[in-house]
Amino acid sequence: MLKFKSLFNKQCSVIAMIHVDALPGTPLFSGSVDNIVKKACKEAEIYLSNRVDGILVENMHDVPYVQSKYFEPEVTASMTRICTELRKIIPKYIPFGLQVLAGGNKEALSIAKVCSMNFIRAEGFVFRFTDADAGLLLRYRKKIEAEDVLVFTDIKKKHSSHAITSDVSLIETAKAAEFFLSDGIILTGTSTGNPADVEELQGLKGNINLPVLIGSGVTYENLENYLSADALIVGSHFKRDGKWNNEVDEERIRNFMNKINKQQFY
């Protein structure tokens, strides 16, 4: 918790999502990396002007996703280029992180290390069907001397089938993540933009000593339900019409930040 609070010192922080456009080698790539970088930087500037507490970059437009073992070098190279340019405009006092889909946790750590970033969002840290990677990932973090990069881990992640681990409860999964040295856990709804279960949030807060982040579905309207979380990752709600693949909507960001800043103590 101390490491988390060294980055996020508010009662409930807001981490805004930048969904970078499709990268080279993926079906929706537009043909211009420069345009991808410009758009990401523009979104970062909008977020910063509205005083979000952190920024998280993700390659969500790279649909359909492939597992990290099938990545080609351009994925890591492109995300490194984007994050390098974003780091130039994001002040060092604003926590800055990334996620590399799907399951590119090692790639994310390497990018975070060379781009002086603060955290990553990791999938499959514990209880993945084939190869949960907590041990390998944290050994790699030690190897490249990136221990100042925090690892926030999804549990019972959205879009995933949990039939294989249905006998393992959410709290048991969270406790496993804590035991395996996660720096924070992320609770989501069943799909992108769907709200997380409020009762599950309260159960986690009462049973583990890790920071709990909400990873999907927070809106202006339901914000009050999630103020007990340590941070809110907001993507879809900050886009036009609340759809993740639309343009950033500055009015929605401004209204949300005004509301949360009025409702919490620092």
Automatic annotation (TrEMBL):
A Pfam family the protein falls into: BtpA
UniProt feature coiled coil, ranges: none
UniProt cross-references to InterPro entries, sorted A to Z: Aldolase_TIM, BtpA, RibuloseP-bd_barrel
Protein name in UniProt: Uncharacterized protein
Lineage of origin: Eukaryota, Metazoa, Ecdysozoa, Arthropoda, Hexapoda
Source organism superkingdom: Eukaryota
UniProt similarity note: Belongs to the BtpA family.
